[in-house]
Structures are given as structure tokens and as C-alpha cells.
Structure prediction request, 374 residues.
Amino acid sequence: MSSDQTQMTRSVQPLFKPFANDKWSLANRIVMAPMTRGFSPGGVPGPDVAAYYRRRAENGVGLIVTEGTVINHPAAAADRNVPHFYGEAALEGWANVVKEVHAAGGKIIPQIWHVGTARQRETFPDSDAAPIGPSGIAAPDRQVSEPLTEAEVVDLVGAYADAAAAAKRIGFDGVEIHGAHGYLIDQFFWDVTNKREDRYGGDLVQRTRFAVEVIEAVRKAVGPDFPIVFRFSQWKPTDYTAKLAKTPEELERFLAPLAAAGVDIFHCSTRRFWEPEFEGSELNLAGWTKRLTGKPTITVGSVGLDNEFTNVFAGQGAGTDNINGLIDRLEREEFDLVAVGRALLNDPAWAAKVLEGRLGELEPFSPQALRSLS
Prediction:
């Protein structure tokens, strides 16, 4: 190995420091971010999906978070080929994924998900399952369904708990609840899509009630020792500038009930990990969340890319950004874990190459990578 490569390898060591808390021990700080793939016909993940995740485990990813997997509700999915997390065939498929990842020495958790009003009726012309949401609002001034009744909300809470119980039963190492990106749980958080006047609506803290009930039900279903990760975001697909919390004080009020309900780790989704969340501090969303809750956090957002992800999907592609800024933040303990998305989707050996100083061998991301399970 050349002296330059030795220096590069030394510089990335914080990424490869083990992580441990009272519920988890991970080999390093690298997390595979959840990324929708749509290669599970009929909602059932096959051997190709298992092999896809195993390749990342074999190449040194510390923790894999699966693509979003939908809970048992008629309107949970936005695509026919997104995997289910219910039913005998789908759960057998996921059990095989777990087996393969564990055989490669990895750890894996499913992300459980309901898309809410993001479901498009035209995608399911043969289904009478309408999109759902707290107020039936998909975006400002766009009503797509009737508001959920309280009884329907309670049933949804139970569906999340059932999925989490299944995750534990078939051998996963924890569970992530998807509460970000304008999907169902996030629709309860956002005042634009939640106009309810019952106990699931109101001010910023009151709008966390649905998520709190989901977390509490999941905790009851999996017991005290099974890790629960909760993913949230400020931004929405319909408004990248949206903020649930406009100040650190508001963020603290928002996070407190979620933390108290049983979240072990917060997965803080941003478009660009290097951007400060609030004026007057360099801390990003994961940094503020860790400071305010005392919980470990995962940062995410264009890690390993030299072009943020919205530009990538506009056809510009992305090269292999150096990660010095990320390492600096990790060394300062601004956050605990780093989720890598498209860079790892495109290059299953990303973690191994970074560890070994083979940065020149990292493969630039292209949207073409989305067309197969590489």
C-alpha cells in the first residue's frame, strides 16, 4: 500500500470504529440507508433481494436498513413491487434475507412503512383501496380522501405493531419506523396535511400523538431489549424547504414525546448532511437531535456523492466525493452513525474500498443503477 493510501485509510478510521449501546453492538459506523427498489413481485422478496443485501454485509456495512416494507393495510403501498411485511410468503422471503445477511456477518433491520396519501389511484386501477391520511390531504389544497376515523387510526397503530413483532420473530436485529418524507406518520406531523381537531391533531406536540402510539405499540410488541430506530425529516417531497421545527426549542418539544415513547436511535433524514439545521450553529439535524435528546443518531444525506441526490435524479449523476468533512463531524461526535444511500446502492463494495484506501476505485453513481439489484 502506498503512503498516500495509508494516510487515506488512517483518515477514515472513525467510520470503522465499533458502535455499542445497551441494545446493539455494531462492527462500524456505516449504515446502509433504506432505498426503495421495487424488485419484489407481488410484495415477496426473492433470492435476488437476499443476495443484494448479503453483498453489502460481505463488504463490511455495519448495519443494513432494508428498503421500505409495507405494513398490513390495503392502502399501504404506492407500488406493486414494493415488498410487504406481512403474509406467509413475504415473511419467508424476509427470513431468507436475514439468514443470508447473518451468514455474511452483518446485521439488518426492516423499515416498516405506510405511504399514506402518496398512494396513487391510477397505479392500482383494480383496487378500491383509496389513499389515506390524517385529513385526507396529499399536499396543500389537494384533498384525495376523507379524513381517517379514530377507529381507523387505532387499527393502523396495531398494524405497525404486528409488523415489528414479525421482524423480531423471524430474526431481524431491530426495526426502523418510517416517519419521514411526507408518508403517513409524517403526514400527522405536518400542519399542512394534518388539520384534525381530535387528539391526533393540534399543535406541534399534539401532532406527534399518532407516532407516539405507534412507537409505544411497537415497544410493547417487541419487548424492552429490541432496538427501535425512528426515521424523521423536516423536508417533504412537495416542499424541500418545509420545517416541522423552525428552532432548536421547537425541535426539542417535537422529539421529547417520541424519545419518551421508546425510540432508541433517531435516523435524521436531510438532503445534504453538511448543511446546518438552524442559524447560529454548524450542527446538522442529527447533531441537534443528539444534543437535545441524548439519544444516538444516524446522519444521512448525499454521503459519498459530489452532487446532492435531487440533481442526481435530474440526470446529472454523481462522482465519489471525498468524505473529510463527514469524518470531522464524526470525530467531534456530532452524530454516531452514518447512513450511505446511493453511493452504496451503486457500489456494494463501497465500505470495503473506503476502509482499504481504494478511493480511486469507488464507482460514480448513475441513475442506471436503479434498474437492477447489483
Notes: Residues 1-10, 308-320 have pLDDT under 50 and may be disordered.
